[in-house]
Amino acid sequence: MFIAKLIINGRQTEAAGGATFERRDLLTGAVVTRASACGVAGALVAADAAAAAFPMWSSAAPKMRAEILKNSAAVLHSRADDIVAIACREVGATEEWIRFNISVAQTMLREAAKLCAYLGEEAIENPNGPATDLNYRLLRKPAGVILGIAPWNAPVALAVRAVASPLALGNTVVLKASELCPKTHETVAEVFSEAGLPDGVLNFITNAPVDAHDVVDALIAHPAVRRINFTGSSRVGREIALSAAQHFKRCVLELSGKGTIIVLDDADIEGTAEAVAHATFFNQGQICMSADRIIVDDAIADTFIAAFREKAEQLRSSQMETERSPLGDIISSDAVLRIKGLIDDATRKGAVLVTGGEMFNTALQPTILDRVSFGMRIYEEEVFGPVAGVIRVADAEEALTIANDTEFGLVASVFGADTARAGAIARQIETGIVHVNGSTVYDDPAMPFGGVKASGYGRFGGKAAVHEFTETQWITERAKPVDVLVGQHEGVRAGSRNQGRKTI
User: Fold this and answer.
1) Based on the domain organization, do 60 and 166 belong to the same domain?
2) Tell me, what's the pLDDT at 480?
3) Position 500 in a domain
4) Which of 112, 258, 260, 486 minimizes the number of CB atoms within 10 Å of its CB?
5) Rounded distance, CA 390 to CA 294, Å?
6) Can you state the angle between helices 157-168 and 95-114, rounded to 10 degrees?
7) Looking at residue 499, what is its pLDDT?
């Protein structure tokens, strides 16, 4: 059994009164992790510690911050075996998925280190012309304390993403763990300490599920907290956005998705089927980028579905009752029942079960449904499981219409041999990310990542993070004070009707 504690001001500590909660094994029910259950008071202590560390960290040399982030990537690599052992048990994922997470997180840290140079001042040209003695400068500076809320499904990569760019840009952080993987997220926080991050710069808390709402609300309300970044469901993201709005605080929200793939009539069938299987079934489809709507031109639908079925059946579990699925576990038996409900609803309304659908405990065989249509729950709802709904269309125009017929807008892909045609369609899809001839499950930490519509707003990754986690201050400088005409810009001739009226 693992023990997860809070990390506040650089020290591991227990919650008040020794309060704890348990994370249990998905299959056996045995306790995997006993974690400290921080309440509102403890969360505020963590925010206070981050606020106290902010003056030191925000003024630290960019080179120092960059070196710590690079060191964190190295420490993460050295702790990989420990992290795999913990995360696989807490969330039921495969070793392949966790090691992939670690690799992505290392890249995130190295990319974040490059952002350290973006703080500071720059002189800009005064638009009123060179005759004036009024100089303009722009100062880019850290925002303050950042609240990062990480999910369970990509437990390493998304915990690192919640803190790496904010730290690079001189902010201090409170990282709130997922209740489903508290030890995994604690280990991520430890990595930064081992890499040399000063005490108080990153504070880590865990809370019992019943206390999550109160803890998050209290942290959002804390006066030192200036940004909130959250990755999770649209339902919870909406609550966070409403709470943050009451305090005039900005959010970066990466929320639910309904990954959409368009397969055009000239697509390479074999290659597309391989990519769609990856997009749909990797990590049991429990990725925000996972595809669950496959929109296929009817001219090639039968051929494509046959190839897709073959790929799906290669991923089946041969002994569901005795062996873990090669795709890993679904996060809970309740989640399996919800997904099975989507399948049953679709088949009752006319969808055709091509393969899969069998369930046992926290496993569900890779599933393909053909002839999905409007009116079925799976047409509208995020699946977050290993189920692909195939929607047949008459042509590319209808495919585009259906692709945009969703409240979500995170990621989409278009497959076709004519890349100019596929690219033209891709540019009309209402998503934050779109790929041509590639899986929806793809991220480059150097690029802006995020969605539109109910998939959230704001962007993680690359230079976009500079905008999200810093403030810009406009500074004017004069050699000496002068009188300024009210309503007049520098360089405007005297003699207007406002002459003689002065500002301070």
Assistant:
1) yes
2) 81
3) no
4) 486
5) 5
6) 10
7) 44
- Domain contains 221: yes
Cβ-contact 82, 184 below 8 angstroms: no
40 and 184: one domain? yes
Identified catalytic residue from 38, 116, 181, 288: 288
pLDDT above 90 (res 485): no
> Do 276 and 158 share a domain, yes or no?
no
Cα distance between residue 472 and residue 121, in whole Å: 10
> The domain spanning residue 348 has which CATH number?
3.40.309.10
Token digits of residue 141: 């500076």
* Among candidate residues 62, 114, 77, 108, the one with its CA nearest the CA of residue 191: 77
- Note down the domain range covering 392: 259-450
Whether 251 and 263 share a structural domain: no
Is residue 239 assigned to a domain? yes
Q: Is 382 a catalytic residue?
A: no
Task: Write down the pLDDT at residue 128.
Answer: 76
In a domain, 88, yes or no: yes
235 and 304 part of one domain: no
One domain for residues 46 and 27: yes
- When divided into structural domains, the chain yields a total of 2
Query: CB of 449 within 8 A of CB of 254?
Result: yes
CA atoms within 13 A on the CB side of 420: 0
Same domain, 192 and 291: no
Which band of pLDDT confidence, cut at 50, 70 and 90, is reported for residue 205?
very high
Which position among 90, 254, 381, 468 bears the catalytic label?
254
Task: Report helix, strand or coil for 205.
Answer: strand
Q: What gap in Å lies between CA 191 and CA 420, rounded to an integer? A: 45
Strands (E), 300-448: 352-355, 359-360, 363-364, 367-370, 387-393, 408-409, 411-415, 433-436
121 is catalytic: no
Q: What is the Cα–Cα distance from 203 to 49, expressed in whole angstroms? A: 7
Q: Which of 273, 272, 271, 275 is nearest to 289 (CA)?
A: 275
